[in-house]
Amino acid sequence: MQKEAKARIKINDLLQNVGWRFFDDEKGKANIVLENNAKITKQTIDEFGNDFEKTKKGFIDFLLLDEKGFPFVVLEAKSEDKDPLDGKEQARRYAQSQNARFIILSNGNLHYLWDVERGNPT
Asked: Per the domain annotation, does 96 fall within a domain?
């Protein structure tokens, strides 16, 4: 099994254990979207300059929705052998494209919660 797949399985379990849902059930509607397509605008790319990869589209690993179904948290998954912070800029642009305030960076073992309105994760 690939290392990112192992990390995703751990993340899936963690999310479900704290009440996030992949499917509609008796507790409510699904509030996790997997591999959601994110459009990145040229303006967004230009704002970050050299820190940005030159892609205009990407896929969000996990998009967590609030109680009204709006984007709340972008969760960027990395393989177990990678530092979750490696996905910081990628996650930032995804969060901006979805108007999500929070980001979680995770490799399944190490997790960072980041409020993009209050600074950088460390």
From this structure: yes
With respect to residue 39, please indicate whether it lies within any of the assigned structural domains. yes
pTM > 0.90: no
CA-to-CA separations, 13 to 9, 65, 78, in angstroms, rounded: 6, 17, 16
In tens digits, the chain (122 residues) has pLDDT values of: 688 889 999 999 999 999 999 999 999 999 999 987 655 455 544 554 444 444 445 789 999 999 999 999 999 999 999 999 999 999 999 999 999 999 999 999 999 999 999 988 76
Q: In 3D, which of 98, 103, 105, 104 has the Cα closest to residue 117? A: 103
Looking at the structure of the chain, the number of domains it has is 1
Question: Which residue range(s) make up the domain with 110?
Answer: 3-115
Q: Is residue 122 part of a domain?
A: no
- Amino acid in the structure at residue 17: N
Residue 18 resides in a domain: yes
